[in-house]
């Protein structure tokens, strides 16, 4: 990516970050390849955090509003960004959406990035942390082939573990590879289908939010 593009992006990301800090919102940038289960993880997360944290969602999609429609059903404030062809979100796209939320009423804003395991990781949106979803159906080699997204993430959800009996995936090896890329990674084995494994992820999110709120005080 050309340096001036990323530099301009970083400037807007810094502005977004300032707004998030002022309003005390923890922002998570959720990334993965298409279909790994970002929206499904979001749906489970919204359910699980109901009554625990106040959520907001930004949905990044190339053309459709389908994911935003799925999230709306849960009664959570959601804003759609259509990237009109672009295969990632950037800070400039996120900035105007912040006007559409009452950020003081939100503890945790989750941004679902465009399904793409490559360039979303290059664009800072002003988030506090990034997390990646990697489903067990994608093949064991994905961390090694696409390391940047995992190096840049604080947590990885290894999703679709309900399918493990039917496929050839060595999750222990997958976790080893992920840790080799980023030893600090928090790893969560989950199934957005059954809800298995979600509680540690939800507690982790609560802790992240709490830490930021303590910083603000
Ligand atoms: N079996 C199983 N299927 C899942 C699980 N999580 C998601 N799926 C299915 O995987 C497909 C894709 O899920 P989405 O949540 O739409 O994936 P996404 O990452 O948001 O997709 P994009 O936004 O298009 O990149 C859907 O058919 C889901 O029902 C899971 O844990 N187990
Ligand atoms: Mg989605
Ligand atoms: Zn892109």
From TrEMBL:
CDD domains linked: HypB
CobW/HypB/UreG nucleotide-binding domain residues: 28-186
Assigned keywords, A-Z: GTP-binding, Hydrolase, Metal-binding, Nickel, Nucleotide-binding, Zinc
GO BP: protein maturation
One Gene Ontology MF term: GTP binding
InterPro entries per UniProt: CobW/HypB/UreG_nucleotide-bd, Hyd_mat_HypB, P-loop_NTPase
The keyword Transcription regulation appears for this protein: no
Pfam families: cobW
Top-level taxon of the source organism: Bacteria
Annotated family: Belongs to the SIMIBI class G3E GTPase family. HypB/HupM subfamily.
Entries under NCBIfam families matching the protein: hypB
Name of this protein: Hydrogenase nickel incorporation protein HypB
Organism: Thermacetogenium phaeum (strain ATCC BAA-254 / DSM 26808 / PB)
Lineage: Bacteria, Bacillati, Bacillota, Clostridia, Thermoanaerobacterales
């Amino acid at each position: 990516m050309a340096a001036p593009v990323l530099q301009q992006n970083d400037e807007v990301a810094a502005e977004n970050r300032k707004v998030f800090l002022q309003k005390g919102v923890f922002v998570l940038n959720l990334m993965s390849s298409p279909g790994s289960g970002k929206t499904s993880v979001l749906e489970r997360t919204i359910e699980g955090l109901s009554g625990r944290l106040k959520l907001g969602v930004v949905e990044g999609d190339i053309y459709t509003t389908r994911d935003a429609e799925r999230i709306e059903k849960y009664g959570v404030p959601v804003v759609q960004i259509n990237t009109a062809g672009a295969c990632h979100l950037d800070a400039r796209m996120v900035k105007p959406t912040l006007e559409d939320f009452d950020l003081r009423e939100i503890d945790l804003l989750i941004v679902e990035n465009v399904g793409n395991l490559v360039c979303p990781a290059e664009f800072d949106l002003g988030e506090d942390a990034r997390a990646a979803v990697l489903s067990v159906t994608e093949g064991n080699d994905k961390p090694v082939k696409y390391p940047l997204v995992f190096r840049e993430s604080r947590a990885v959800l290894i999703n679709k573990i309900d399918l493990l009996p039917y496929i050839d995936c060595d999750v222990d090896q997958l976790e080893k590879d992920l840790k080799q890329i980023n030893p600090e990674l928090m790893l969560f084995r989950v199934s957005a289908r059954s809800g298995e494994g979600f509680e540690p992820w939800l507690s982790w999110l609560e802790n992240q939010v709490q830490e930021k709120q303590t910083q603000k005080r």
